[in-house]
Amino acid sequence: MCGITGFLNLNKQANVDKTLLAAMNQAQFHRGPDEGGEYTDDTIALGHRRLAIIDLSSGQQPMASDDGQFVLIFNGEIYNFKTIRADLIALGQTFQTHSDTEVILKAYMVWGAECVNQLQGMFTFAIWDKAQQTLFIARDRLGIKPLFYAIINDALYFASELKSITLVPGLNKKIDVKAVEQHFSLGYTAEPHTIYQQVAKLSPGHTLTIKVGQKTPTLAQYWDVSYAKQVELTEQAYDDLMVSQFKKAVASHLMAEVPLGAFLSGGVDSSAVVAMMSQITEQPINTCSIGFDVKDYNETEFARQVADRYQSHHQEHIVASDDFSLVDELAGLYDEPYADSSAMPTYRVCQLARKKVTVCLSGDGADELLAGYRRYHLMMNEEKVRTILPYRLRKPLFGTLGKLYPKLDWAPQFLRAKTTFQSLAMDTTEGYFHGVSLLNNQQRKDLFSKELYQELQGYTALEVFREHEKNFDGHDALSLIQYLDIKTYLVGDILTKVDRASMAHSLEVRVPFLDHKFVEWSATIPTALKLKNGSGKHIFKKAMEPHLPHDVLYRKKMGFRVPLADWFRGPLKNKLREALLSEQMANSGLFNMATIRLWLDDHQSGKHEYSAPLWTLLMFASFYKQAEDA
């Protein structure tokens, strides 16, 4: 696991700035504190920071081919590199190291851009072909590893983190208003956008190719998940297949020459990873858990059940419910606005894990693949109504009811009739967007300044969902919203959170649920076996019954929750007001400050619940302050 950065001068007459390369590389030191390397020639500059996991004594980067024509920098792990290595040897290639890095290099030399189809793992890498004066960059299928890029003054710059690109002289830091709309809708900036107009993210499952003399890169998609075919088998057959397929995915993620462990939250997904690991490895595994000093937020007793059952070397740490000291650090960690408050406990669990291990397995991805989120059940209840009443009847009927019915912000989700009525007046995709939005359409309209609203020209983050909907090849609503989550929430929120939090501590996190072969297989499971009788991940839980305690499998999902409402009325009350009503926020021209004052007053007086909008604003304010002060 590493950090990569570099730039290609598209104008042959330009000089390579080695000082800038060194600064961009150093900005990502935390991603790879073990070693660093740089390569430059007349046109290209490549930088690499290494966190050594495999072949510790060799595999240094940048890595050049024997004849010097190809140079590679790589971030990630290739889990099937030994198989590919054997195939390449059979084709006449020779190897100087035992690293997966050299396997990628030789694979590109043999198969060119098609090499990505051979790779099983998480990765971003860049290969410079000196003879062809061509730069090739690839990102893994699910977007586990990040890659940012920008064209600035006739050069292409790229990096694992945005902070390296912000060092480039001439970067225009004009904020992308579409990214602002995305942040306040979704809580993150969706691929391929970033907070800056001039910088983009390389989308998951895509490659980028550019030659000296070109003005813009060529982007190509090499993978997508298909929901076109659901395979009908008995439930028992799927029970057996689930265990074998998942165990295979976990086994492929266990290669390492450094201490390895697993997060253990006490939930189904991380517990299943630990169960499979314990059955594969001979030695007890290392596990770690974060708990809270408030019972309603604490899952450590369930994590302990699994740790005791599999005799893991378990460590846990209790975080105080007022552990908000990370608020100011998050903006610097994520480089752009990011509103998932569970980033704080995720940061803490990575910090705890790094004390014992260098590599940790997590349970991320299971909810998206196997329909584990409670919102899927709610959406499918709405979908039943959509299938009965045609859109031309639903839109006027439920649209009117949504306007007339008072919104019950304080009520349980199933009683919030206004939100439900509003959603039923929409099609599946818009209804799902409406359901997951942090701030609804009216709240965003109230929040944004007239200038920002006009500049958006009618754009809403719903368009992110619409673009992905065009590529969906399935036939049912549940598969559609799973697909949308894989393309948006999973990569923009979950994987971003884990990558930045883990790399801040030089910890590699692997996600066996997102092994692309397991992802492809899970997409063929009938939706009736994923969501059954209102219970998500039905077939997965059934398959894990022999391996995990009943309480772990079937209790209500908790997740990493943070007591924001209490913080904003108590210990963070003054800090919140100061940040949101700052001169910088007022002068940004982005917000209606009267709305922010109203939300602050109503929330802190207990009149209304605005913790989610206020947290989303606080994270934007923290980012904006750091960006303006830089």
The assigned structural class equals alpha+beta
Query: Largest sheet, if any?
Result: 6 strands, antiparallel
What is the CA-based Rg, rounded? 24 Å
Helix percentage range: 40-55%
Query: How would you write the strand order of the largest sheet?
Result: 2-3-1-9-8-10
Shape: globular
- How much of the sequence lies in strands comes to 5-15%
Distance between the termini: 28 Å
Average pLDDT taken over every residue: 91
Low-confidence stretches: 408-416
Could you tell me the number of beta strands? 17
The tally of helices reads: 29
Describe this structure in words.
This protein is of the alpha+beta class and 630 residues long. 44% of the residues lie in helices and 15% in strands. The protein contains 29 helices and 17 strands. A six-stranded antiparallel sheet has the order 2-3-1-9-8-10. It has a six-stranded antiparallel sheet with strand order 4-5-6-7-11-12, covered by helices on one side. It has a five-stranded parallel sheet with strand order 15-14-13-16-17, sandwiched between helices. A hairpin with a 3-residue loop joins strand 2 and strand 3 (44-50). Residues 408-416 have low confidence and may be disordered.
In brief, what are we looking at here?
With 630 residues, the chain is α+β, with helices and mostly antiparallel strands. The chain contains 29 helices and 17 strands.
